[in-house]
Amino acid sequence: MYNVLIVKYGEIGVKGKNRYIFENKLIKNIKNMLKPIGTFKVYKEYGRIYVDLEDYEYEEVIEEVKKVFGIVGVCPGVRAEKDYDKLKELALKMLEEKIEEGAKSFKVESRRGDKSFRLTSQEMSLDIGGYLVSQVKDRIKVDVRNPEIKIKCELRESHIMVYSDTVPGYGGLPLGTNGKAMSLLSGGIDSPVATWMVAKRGMEIEAIHFHSYPFTSEKSQEKVRDLAKILSKYCGRIKLHKVNIVEIQKAIGLNCREEETTIISRRFMMRIAQRVAEKRFCDALVTGESIGQVASQTIQGLTCTNASVTLPVFRPLIAMDKSDIVSLAEKIGTFETSIIPEEDCCSVFSPKKPVTKPRLERIEKSETELDVEKLIQDAIDNIEVEDIEF
Ligand code: ATP
Ligand code: MG
């Protein structure tokens, strides 16, 4: 029955000139999201966005469209050539379907886009409602105050449309309306979820990954690339900065206490991420840290990590339980890739017994044994950059 989707989006940040930019971005993002299914006609009309369904299953298409940030709902609808009697017929067909699904009460809501039409919107509702009641008799009752379902009828300049249900979207804010963040992307479960959450609030994303090639494999970098690719479905193109930190890890291993190696390498990652972020005009860093999840994420560990940088660090998972993070990872589609077993740079050089309550003064003292500036600069000089697009 359905041949079109009506996309509803939030009004925040889409006033005036921004609206035009936002809608075009939204259209591009919807097309991108639908790429794995097929090529769709996505277009703007009368201040709304539509997706033509062609012969595709509407459920399958909605499932993808609703993931686009900034979309609050998607309605499957029927669109046809302008013809008022046909409109009534389609409304009846939709109502019959709703009755079959068990609906007990309804109301008609109409919109007259074609101002030359003889009936006003209100009159249309009365007329169509009356017709529907005469056809379905007492199989369903009218309830204008609190109807279980609404049959929405529109008569436009060139076409008619009927729809009823709204499938909720993920919400969020239009991409690129809130600056840019540099996300520390590992191959784990957490950082892709953290990245997604920040992007959902309208931040553009760049990613930085630290590896210890040749101690970590090519494959482990492939995995991060795959994760970035899944994320780019939501966030648009992602610039991925890949940093080799083998020399840093060796220097730490030679000069610092074994139990401090993780926390000190983490501080190096943050410093490097900040340098790259500033060069790329990013406003914040993002990590997938969560209080107490591992030894380096105790409050003392987080304090030491945090103290290595001045940019704001966003940790959207900070108070989330692992099981909730996993559910979200499954929902956004990164989980399957994240759990592929690959060596991470942290696991390669990780101490047997890491400190769980590092003291900042002690860590800073240990770092005086290192030529921090040179190590950072050498790592930055060898960064490789890739553009990842879905
Ligand atoms: P994740 O699942 O995101 O890897 P985790 O639970 O394994 O997180 P840690 O390994 O302690 O936790 O890492 C904490 C955070 O530090 C990560 O969420 C990520 O933001 C950042 N991070 C860790 N390792 C790397 C890496 N190799 N490259 C980039 N960022 C990293
Ligand atoms: Mg990790």
Number of domains: 2
Counting DSSP H or I runs of 4 or more residues, the number of helices is 14
CATH topology of the largest domain: Rossmann fold
Approximate helicity band: 40-55%
- Residue ranges: pLDDT <50 for 5 or more in a row? none
Strand segment tally: 15
Shape: elongated
CATH class descriptor of the largest domain = Alpha Beta
| CATH architectural type of the largest domain | 3-Layer(aba) Sandwich
| Mean pLDDT reading | 93
Family: Belongs to the ThiI family.
Enzyme class: transferase
GO cellular component, one term: cytosol
Organism: Asaccharospora irregularis DSM 2635
Give the SSE map.
Blueprint: E1 4-9, H1 16-34, E2 42-45, E3 48-52, H2 58-65, E4 71-81, H3 84-100, E5 105-112, H4 121-136, E6 141-142, E7 149-155, E8 159-163, E9 167-168, E10 180-184, H5 190-200, E11 204-211, H6 218-235, E12 238-244, H7 246-255, H8 261-279, E13 284-286, H9 299-306, E14 313-314, H10 322-332, H11 335-338, H12 345-348, H13 360-367, H14 372-381, E15 384-388
Parallel strand pairs: 5-6, 5-7, 10-11, 10-13, 11-12, 13-14
Antiparallel strand pairs: 1-3, 1-4, 2-3, 4-8, 4-9, 7-8, 12-15
Helix pairs in contact: 3-4, 5-6, 5-10, 7-8, 8-9, 8-14
